[in-house]
Amino acid sequence: MPSHSAAERQALADALAEAGPGAPTLCTGWSTTDLAAHLVLREGRPQVRLADAIGPLKPWAARQKQAAADRPYSELITRIRNGPPRGSPFALPGVDDRANLLEHFVHCEDVRRAAPDWQPRRLPPDRQATFWKSLSGPLGKFALRKSDMPVSLQVPGGEPVALIKRPGPGVTVAGEPGELAMYLFGRKDHARVQLLGEDDAVARFRSLPLRA
User: Fold this and answer.
1) Where are the beta strands (DSSP E) in the chain?
2) Dihedral in degrees, nearest 10, Cα atoms 95, 16, 30, 188
3) Cβ partners under 8 Å of residue 140, min gap 6
4) Which among 95, 155, 160, 166 has a CA at the least distance from the CA of 131?
5) CA distance 111 to 170
6) What is the rounded distance in angstroms from the CA atom of residue 206 to the CA atom of residue 68?
7) For the chain, which end, N or C, has fewer CB atoms within 10 Å of the first or last residue's CB respectively?
8) How far is CA 209 from the centre of its chain?
């Protein structure tokens, strides 16, 4: 049975294939082609991403990204579907599950939810539980690190879990774990969550920049 990350990888590849090259995504400024090229470079050539953060190397990194985007779209999807190449850090045992599960899920939804009339996928309960385990810990705290108010997360049937403890009125973000992931990864307008709290606190929280 494939791991949750492997299953989300295939869902992502399927979504990219169905949308086609050049289609919109929720990633600002990126089409499906740009997203596919990013994913291939992220796993196969992580040094390009590092070079992009170093001023003198930015032109080289830009050329590598363009070269990846110029590959046949079907080839990019095949590379994504086949997983990290041998020698990639992501091919080490356990790394794919830890580093890619939410990456694959969020980017799959970046493609799906950029289309009109999208609906949330029905995800296995154990996959949602795996999402929740990550979001209710250090990852969730990291995404909410810029909050100046108390913030809790809550899943259906569960109690709020306080991630950010501050004085004053707070906010609870409630929803299925996958929807919480979309919100905490900055896809606020495309996440089906409820923000619970005083009106002023909710309004302030809505303007908070989030990025897991």
Assistant:
1) 151-154, 161-164, 171-174, 194-197
2) -70
3) 134, 153, 163, 180, 184, 212
4) 155
5) 32
6) 36
7) N
8) 15
Query: Distance between CA 204 and CA 98 in Å, rounded?
Result: 32
- Nearest alpha carbon to residue 110 among 8, 207, 2, 6: 8
Q: Which residues are CB-neighbours of 51 under 8 A, at least 6 positions away?
A: 57, 58, 60, 61, 64
Could you tell me which residues are beta bridge partners of residue 174? 154, 194
4 in Cβ contact with 102 (< 8 Å)? no
Q: How far is CA 60 from the centre of its chain?
A: 26
Q: Are 13 and 77 in contact (CB under 8 A)?
A: yes
The three-state secondary structure class of 119 is: coil
Residues 35 and 107: their CA atoms lie apart, in Å, by: 8
What pLDDT was estimated at residue 25? Answer: 98
- Of the pLDDT bands very low, low, confident and very high (cuts 50, 70, 90), residue 212 is low
Cβ(193)–Cβ(183) below 8 Å: yes
Res 1 pLDDT > 80: no
